[in-house]
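Encoded backbone
================
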Amino acid sequence: MNKLWYLSRISIFEALPEKDLEEIDQMAPMTHFNALPRNSMVQTPDNERDGLFFVKKGKLRLYKMNPDGKQFTVGILGPGNMFGEIDSFSLGTKGIYIETMEETLICSVLKEHFENFLSTRPLLAMKFLKELSDRLKDRDELLEKLALSDLRGKVLFLLYKLSEQFGIEDEGYLKIDMPLTHQELANMIGATREAVSVTLQELAREGLIVTGRKSIKVQPVRVKESLTPHE
């Protein structure tokens, strides 16, 4: 697959004509990143990446870490999502750890090149603002739920958001399209593996989810009802 095909699949660029995609293709000498294996560290707070980066294939987890070493997920990016910092826009990745959840391909654009390109395309600038607004809204909602909910609520909300973003229809359920161990789920919400395992068993007995080997299916209607506050 060439870079233009990937760029045409990135939502931020879907309204751009092919000549603009070709210009981006020229300004992004991606020379092809090698595929990054699962659990590769892409960024740490002490080694932040400058510029814009686009996920071509795979998934990335963005997280923070408290002084006790507990991890708290602030976002998961799949194909078509982007991260990074330029002078005109910040996508909220400063001070964040970024790690691959599976084999991942990433491409990059130098910030100087992209800002020059962006200055002549107000439509694309507006799409960037919307992307930033949506990203911050999702992150604030996730952090609020993780801060205020009990463990059951945290697990349910995380699984619901993952099924929304990465779910595949499967006999009335949404199967989360990524391998997930109990430890990985625990890391995402700052809990212990043992506590998460007990919670998953309870949710499975209630019919809200179905678990398999590194796989989870969510019953979206019932889970959403469980997350909705009742009067």
Summary: The mean pLDDT is 81. Residues 44 and 73 are 14 Å apart (CA to CA). The longest strand covers residues 51-57. The first helix runs from residue 3 to 9.
